[in-house]
Predict the structure.
Amino acid sequence: PPIKIPEGMLFMMGDNRDNSYDSRFWGFLPVENIKGKALFLYWSWDPTVPLYDVIHKVRWTRILDVIR
């Protein structure tokens, strides 16, 4: 069901949504706990490409892209 996020809190989703310990596990994160912001994209791959096809699975053009 929908959840209302309290004022001053954030809902954090892990990058491996089915296997991450994130806000669904440990609850909301206070905004004051955030110490910075993301600078660049570290890793990216296409979930529609089979794992054995690593050359095409990795999104090479997105790796180290600056986040604006």
User: Anything to note?
Assistant: Strands lie at 9-10, 29-30.
